Amino acid sequence: MEIAEQLTKLAELSNIELKIRDKRDRLEVVPKLAKDAEDEAATKATAVEVLDRKRFDKDRERQAKEKDLQGERDHLRKWNARLDKIRDDREHAALQSEIGTLKRVIGRLENDILERMQEIEDIDKDMAKAKDVHAAAQTHAQEEWSKVQEEVATLEGELKELEASRTKFTEGLPAALVNRYRKIADKRQGQGVALIKGETCSACNTVLPPQLCLQVWKGVVLEGCPSCSRILVHEEMTRSTTAEQAQQDGAPA
Ligand SMILES: [Zn+2]
Predict the structure, then answer these.
(1) Do 48 and 130 contact (CB within 8 A), yes or no?
(2) What is the pLDDT of residues 154-179, one digit of tens each?
(3) Which among 54, 161, 192, 225 could disulfide-bond with 185, CB atoms 3.0 to 4.6 Å apart, if both were Cys?
(4) Residue 61 domain-assigned (yes or no)
(5) pLDDT per residue as tens digits for the range 30-49
(6) CATH code at 221?
């Protein structure tokens, strides 16, 4: 492949890559609000989950206390029954004292259960609010997405097409040239090729030696801009499809 043809193709590749960058940037920017709203909705969902877990733990505590209470009440029933049968005064008094203690334990358990129930009720109130907040955040995220959905789909489609044509161009060029171009592009905001316009590098506005401009235009050298090192392509070359045509058209004015 002639150098001139390589340069022309490279210029087109560079053009495509700049467009790809632009599409990717747009794909970051366009759905930003929708993505933020989605993150916000996810945070609200976590708040609901936290409350749900808290409720589950409290309810488990309540159940355990209920079970204890049941056991202590059974004891009390048995002890009361036994009390009726005891005739000995001292034994009677001793058991009555134990029953008193047991009643205090039962009272404490009943209190604990009431406390848990109150806490669960409070959690339920918080949960209802948190669920409303989450639903609103979700609706908001959906609204934001519906605003940009079409644009995002279009951008994704365009990006896909550009990527396909980039592959085509990359495959049509010598690997070494593509590698060189990529290295420069990585350092130079994605732009590895610069057009010579007049006698100036259009990427960094450096005035170039006329001899260099002429050689690039003739397609005999693969040179980088002395200032920004981007591979130089003459703008005249990019106006026709092939270097042969450029040469037939005659020297640039
Ligand atoms: Zn330059």
Answers:
(1) yes
(2) 999 999 999 999 889 888 899 998 99
(3) 192
(4) yes
(5) 999 999 999 999 999 999 99
(6) 1.10.287.1490
